[in-house]
Design goal:
Blueprint: E1 5-6, E2 14-15, E3 19-20, H1 36-48, E4 53-55, H2 64-73, E5 81-86, E6 88-92, E7 95-98, H3 102-116, E8 121-126, H4 135-147, E9 151-157, H5 161-168, E10 175-177, H6 188-197, E11 200-201, H7 216-224, H8 229-240, H9 253-261, H10 269-276
Parallel strand pairs: 3-4, 4-5, 5-8, 8-9, 9-10, 10-11
Antiparallel strand pairs: 1-2, 6-7
Length: 281
């Protein structure tokens, strides 16, 4: 049976199928996407459907996604975990600049607190490790923010298993985010480490950025369940590992409903074997 909830950092459990906010912004995660009231409606509907994990970032927009989260959901319902990220500065739709100096991370966190209208961010994730700054200094800055009560748990985005293991020697890590989906298993060793240590793994591009919808095996399994390939891809993640917490994003109410309905798809052992083989497992 698929476990539908997970404790991130030992906190009260959240539903493993969450909602990501990148698609609430424009192309390249830059600027607004249409009428902001549409984004507000999607966020509110996600929570109405039982989502308790909202994943965002300060550079989606930039700032726009966090502001939309607060506009739609503040004051936040009890049990709703707001996760955000810092450590990357955007200067255009194609320009991403890693910024991991302690003073930068502190300022970014403070700005996220204001935009999200929070006293404490439930999960604050380092969006990228800065190769120009010692990792100990970056983690130390997050530890200090946690000691000040500004964040509750620390997460890392786009790391190797070796980097996570090293980070765990100096501080507690509650979650990681890496690309992982039905067709992309490059982070398999990281997933195994997360399983061993009870660390949540929030896979980005859980739907393969659209590539999964054209896979014939995925389509055949979907047809057998009266589902869509997207639902099957999410259902596979939920059954693949109890620490995987996909947070698919969309700006469409219809697509949101489809994504959240994936939790009801019950894949058989034969389904899993066929789908596992797509990644060479």
């Amino acid at each position: 049976m698929v476990e539908e909830r997970i404790r991130i950092g030992g906190d009260p459990p959240v539903r493993r199928l969450g909602f990501g906010t990148a698609q609430l912004t424009g192309p390249g995660y830059w600027g607004p996407r249409g009428d902001p009231q549409d984004a507000v409606a999607v966020l509110r509907r996600a929570v109405e459907r039982g989502v308790t994990l909202i994943d965002t970032a300060d550079n989606y927009g930039p700032s726009i996604a966090e502001e939309l989260v607060a506009r739609a959901l503040h004051p936040y319902a009890e049990g709703l975990l707001i996760a955000t990220k810092g450590g990357v500065v955007r200067t255009s739709d194609r320009a991403w600049h890693i910024a991991g100096r302690p003073e930068q991370l502190s300022a970014m966190c403070e700005a996220s607190l204001r935009r999200l209208r929070l006293d404490t961010i439930g999960l604050y994730q380092l969006h990228r490790l800065d190769p120009e700054v010692p990792v100990a200094e970056q983690l130390g800055a997050l530890d200090e923010l946690r000691a000040q009560g500004k964040i509750r748990h620390i997460g890392l985005d786009t790391v190797t298993a070796e980097q996570l293991a090293s980070a765990l020697e100096s501080t507690d890590i509650a979650a990681v985010q890496n690309r992982y989906n039905l067709l992309d298993r490059a982070s398999e060793s990281l997933l195994k480490l997360c399983e061993a240590r009870g660390i949540a793994f929030l896979p980005w591009f859980p739907l393969g950025n659209g590539s999964l919808t054209s896979d014939p095996v995925c389509a055949e399994v979907a047809a057998a369940h009266g589902a869509t390939p997207g639902k099957v891809a999410l259902a596979w993640l939920l059954r693949r590992s109890p620490v995987l917490c996909p947070t698919p994003g969309t700006g469409s109410l219809a697509h949101l409903e489809e994504n959240l309905d994936a939790a009801a798809v019950r894949l058989t052992d034969e389904d899993m074997s066929r789908l596992d083989a797509l990644g060479g497992v």
